[in-house]
Each structure stands twice: as C-alpha cells, then as structure tokens.
Design goal:
Shape: globular
CATH topology: TIM Barrel
Mean pLDDT: 90
Bound molecules: magnesium ion
Order of helices and strands: HEHEEEEHEHEHEHEHHEHEHH
CATH superfamily: Phosphatidylinositol (PI) phosphodiesterase
Strand order of the largest sheet: 1-2-6-7-8-9-10-11
Radius of gyration: 19 Å
Number of strands: 11
Length: 276
C-alpha cells in the first residue's frame, strides 16, 4: 500500500516537473561575452543560469583522450588522427584551452543540478566508435557523474553500445531517420531530432509519447520559433543557442502559485493534459 502511494506520488512529481519543456543550451551558453562553444565557461554559465542542461560535443584523439570540440578539426588538425600532445594547446575562441572531457565533467560535477548532454561524434569507423564509447563509459563511472550525464549520438552503433554498456543511462538518437517505434525497439530512452524532422513527420511526436520516449528538438533559435516549440505539449526538451530567451518565455507562460496566468497570459493546462 505504502509502495503504491509512493509510486503515485512520484508520478505526480514527475508530471509536474515535465509540465514545461526543459532548456538545453546547445554547445553550452556561448552567446555572451567571454564564452565560447564547448568551453568550460559555457558550461559554468549554463549552470549559473540554472538551465536544465548543457550540450557538448566529444572527439577522441588517436591515443584515447576525450576532448570537447564541435568540429573534428581544430587549427587544421584532425583530432581523431593525432595523439593528444598535438592538440593540447589548441584554444577555443575565448582563449580557453580546448578542454578534455575529464576536465569538463569534473567542473560540471560542481553543479549537480546541471545535466551534461554528452554528444559522442561519429568517428572514422565502428572500431574507433566502440573504443570511444568504452572510454566514455569508463570515465563517467570513474568520476561518478552517471546521474548528471545524458548521451546523444547520430550513430546508431554508438547509441546501441552506450545502452548495452550502461542500460540505466539516458541515450537519445539524433539522426532523424528512425521512427519512434524503431528507436524504442533499440532500447533507447529518447529521440533528439532536428525540428525539420518533426515537420516532415508530424505523427512522430505523438508516437514517441505513446512509446514512452523522451522528445528533444534541436536547434530551435529565435523568439518566435521558441514560443511555438515551448507551447507544444509533446516536447520534453528544447536545445537552443538562445537559452535565456527560452527561459524567459517559459517563465512568462508558467502559472503563478495562486493559479493565475503568467505574464504572457497563457496557462499550461493544455500541456499538462496532453502529457498525462
Ligand atoms: Mg552537438
């Protein structure tokens, strides 16, 4: 009896928590002075602005060191083809050294409320992809940040291996070419698709919810597009380069404690109903 009451309570808590989409800063919060995409600063700023999550991109050097950078090439050097010593002094656009993933996660662990949305880039072959996943899982466990990390990848191979090695981890597929049912069949926890994918396949949002998959949409920028996506009851997370704009939109749409409308006059009744 106690157990079922507790389960009902937890369900209510989780519904309340998901009444609005969560904000994920795409490559961190970088659109501000002194920051840069994938820098430790961009992650710290996302944490300080109390965002739900901070997305970042990961490559592995030829000697197995994981680093944060969006492109596979930095200063003309292809990261996966060289040992770490060749790229360790490469800088981000804010002057920070390109962080290793270990540094990034250690700093992120200082902000336990922040989810680190960990994108593993597709490397040159699946032998390399397997080695990257194995090293990622090992490092995340060593640092004890499993609860703060949520994985995303374009490679189906990478997603499946992540799920196999850590069945408890959240893993979302990015590539947009599989239906929610197909992603569910792989055992993954979510889809993280470009907004154009949902335009082409509008039924996938509902299908994803019916399958119990979490839905993340990227990269939604600009006030109008953010407002439209924020009002969509099927979307759980929005990945954006404008996280503070989205945060303000969500704050405006939230009901006050007394149930009155927020600043923009919208209640979220529709959202809550559809999510149940
Ligand atoms: Mg990315």
């Amino acid at each position: 009896m106690k157990k079922s009451l507790f389960a009902s309570f937890m369900m209510l808590v989780s519904l309340a928590a998901y009444a609005q989409p969560q904000v994920v800063a795409h490559r961190g919060y970088w659109k501000t002075e002194g920051s840069a995409q994938n820098s430790v600063t961009s992650m710290e700023l996302a944490a300080k602005h109390k965002l739900y999550g901070c997305e970042f991109d990961v490559w592995q050097t030829s000697d197995g060191v994981l680093v944060c950078n969006h492109d596979g090439v930095i200063d003309g050097i292809r990261i996966e083809d060289v040992p770490y010593a060749k790229v360790q002094y490469c800088k981000m656009s804010n002057g920070e050294l390109m962080p290793t993933v270990a540094q990034y996660l250690r700093e992120g662990a200082k902000y336990p409320h922040l989810k680190m949305v960990f994108e593993i880039k597709t490397h040159k072959n699946d032998e390399r992809n397997a080695s990257v996943v194995d090293n990622v899982i090992r490092l995340v466990r060593e640092l004890g940040v499993q609860n703060q990390v949520e994985y995303i990848a374009f490679s189906k191979f990478i997603c499946e291996r992540l799920h196999k090695l850590d069945p408890q981890a959240k893993v979302a597929y990015l590539n947009g070419n599989l239906s929610p049912k197909e992603v569910k069949a792989l055992g993954l926890s979510g889809i993280d698709y470009n907004h154009s994918v949902f335009k082409k396949n509008p039924s996938w949002l509902k299908e994803a919810k019916e399958c119990g998959l979490e839905v993340n949409v990227w990269t939604v920028n600009g006030e109008q597009a953010l407002k439209e996506h924020a009002a969509n009851p099927y979307i759980d997370l929005i990945t954006t380069d404008d996280p503070i704009v989205l945060k303000k939109i969500l704050k405006g749409g939230k009901k006050n404690k007394d149930g009155k409308k927020g600043k923009d006059g919208k209640k979220n009744k529709k959202n809550k109903k559809a999510r149940k």
